[in-house]
Design goal:
By secondary structure, the chain is mostly helical. Helix content is about 35%, strand content about 0%. It has four helices and no strands. It has helices spanning about 1-5, 20-25, 35, 70-80. It is elongated.
């Protein structure tokens, strides 16, 4: 990211929760997945999506288990959330 941000990077975090916490407390900007920053009303997007960091993610379950009520319910909820 230094080619994108230059010397503006002041802190690197080693736990995912720290970056949004720093930004929420006014201690800088954070490069976050869109599903994190889009749900935080107090965060404002400062730039565009970084295409180099985008990728598809798949949610899979074992074929024998996906019909179990608790698994089906979880899959349906996740599907509605990220639909």
């Amino acid at each position: 990211m230094t080619e994108r941000c230059g010397e503006a990077i002041a802190v690197e975090v080693n736990a995912p929760r720290l970056a949004p916490d720093l930004a929420l407390n006014g201690l800088g900007r954070a490069l976050l997945p869109t599903f994190v920053d889009d749900r935080k009303a107090r965060l404002e997007r400062a730039g565009s999506v970084v295409d180099e960091l985008t990728h598809d993610q798949w949610l899979v379950s074992h074929g024998d288990d996906r019909a179990l009520p608790e698994i089906r319910r979880a899959l349906d909820r996740i599907g509605r959330t990220f639909g």
